[in-house]
Specification:
By secondary structure, this protein is of the alpha+beta class. Helices cover 32% and strands 36% of the residues. It starts with a helix and ends in a 25-residue tail after the last strand.
C-alpha cells in the first residue's frame, strides 16, 4: 500500500473498535445462554470493566501509532455510550453480588437455636441463619440438590471460614473448633431440593435421620406462585 493510498484512507472514529468487540462478546453471551440455559452467565456482567479497558487501549494505541482518529461529536458520543454501558453493567454486577435477595416457591423454611433447614422446588437467591455452637459440637449437615446448584458458606464470628463450596451435595458435617456464633450462608442458583444443618452437642452422636419437616411454628415460610 502506497503512502498516497494510506493518506487517502478516512480517519477512524475512536471507540469503533471497542464497539465491535462489545457487540461480538454480547452476541456470543446470548448464544451461550440459549444453548446452555443451565450455565450461570453472570460473568458477562462481571467482565464489564473490560469495556473501559478496551476503549483505553484503543485510544492509547491509536495515539502511539500516529493513526488518524476522529474525535468529533459522534466519536465522543460513542465513547460516552460505551463508558455509560460499562458503568451500568458494573453497577448491576455489584448489586447482584452484594444485595440480599430471596426468590423461591413451594418453599418451607425452619430455623431456631439448633436447626436450620429448608425445602424448595425452586430457590434462587440468598438466605442465612446464625447458630450458637459450643466447642466440640458437631454441625451435622445434609444437602440434596435435584437441579441447579447450591453454594454453602459456614463462617465463625471471627471471620474464619469452616466450609465453602459450590456446588455442594451430600453430607457436610463439621466439628466445631471453638465456642461462638456461626453463620450459615446459602446461595441457591435456580435450584431445587433441600438442605439441613443441625447442632449435635459434644458426645451426643450424629442424628440417624432428619427431624420432622416442620416442628413447632416455623420462623418463616415462603410460598409464591
Amino acid at each position: 500500500m502506497t503512502a498516497s493510498e494510506t493518506s487517502a484512507r478516512p480517519p477512524r472514529r475512536v471507540g469503533t473498535f471497542t464497539l465491535g468487540i462489545v457487540l461480538v462478546a454480547a452476541g456470543i453471551g446470548m448464544l451461550v445462554s440459549l444453548l446452555w440455559p443451565e450455565l450461570d452467565i453472570g460473568w458477562l456482567l462481571k467482565a464489564s470493566p473490560l469495556i473501559l479497558v478496551a476503549l483505553g487501549v484503543e485510544t492509547l494505541l491509536s495515539a502511539r501509532g500516529g493513526g488518524k482518529v476522529r474525535y468529533d461529536w459522534l466519536g465522543m458520543l460513542l465513547c460516552f455510550l460505551l463508558v455509560g454501558a460499562g458503568l451500568c453493567m458494573y453497577a448491576a454486577a455489584w448489586a447482584w453480588e452484594n444485595e440480599d435477595f430471596f426468590n423461591a416457591y413451594d418453599c418451607s423454611r425452619y430455623a431456631d437455636e439448633s436447626v436450620y433447614r429448608m425445602r424448595y422446588d425452586y430457590f434462587n437467591g440468598f438466605d442465612s441463619h446464625t447458630l450458637r455452637l459450643e466447642a466440640g459440637d458437631t454441625l451435622a449437615g445434609r444437602v440434596d440438590t435435584c437441579n441447579g446448584w447450591l453454594e454453602v458458606e459456614i463462617s465463625g464470628e471471627d471471620g474464619e471460614t469452616l466450609l465453602e463450596g459450590s456446588p455442594l451435595n451430600g453430607d457436610q458435617s463439621l466439628e466445631i473448633p471453638r465456642t461462638g456464633d456461626y453463620t450459615i450462608l446459602v446461595h441457591g442458583r435456580k435450584t431445587g431440593g433441600a438442605f439441613s444443618f443441625e447442632r449435635v452437642p459434644a458426645g451426643g452422636g450424629l442424628p440417624e435421620e432428619e427431624p420432622p419437616a416442620d416442628p413447632g411454628v416455623p420462623e418463616r415460610v415462603e410460598e409464591a406462585a
